[in-house]
Specification:
- The chain is flat, with a radius of gyration of 21 Å.
- It is mostly helical and about 60 residues long.
- The protein has 3 helices and no strands.
- The chain starts with a helix and ends with a helix.
- The protein has one domain.
- It is about 85% helix and about 0% strand.
Length: about 60
């Protein structure tokens, strides 16, 4: 089991890490909009490829 000190360290670490990630994302939000404006098209393409692979795999194993 964990000691009380380890729980406190874990909570403080998680809080600071999440805070740093939020601060970093907010700082770079203009760059994200510039470089990743059509990334949803890639995500849909990857989803379709995985779905087709799963359909092909399940249909061949019947």
């Amino acid at each position: 089991m964990f000691s009380k000190g380890q729980y406190i360290f874990g909570a403080i670490f998680a809080f600071l890490f999440i805070g740093a990630m939020i601060w970093s994302y907010r700082k770079d939000i203009k760059l994200h909009h510039f470089y990743y404006k059509n990334v949803w098209i890639i995500a849909i393409g990857i989803f379709i490829v995985i779905a087709l692979f799963a359909i092909l795999t399940f249909s061949l194993h019947k």
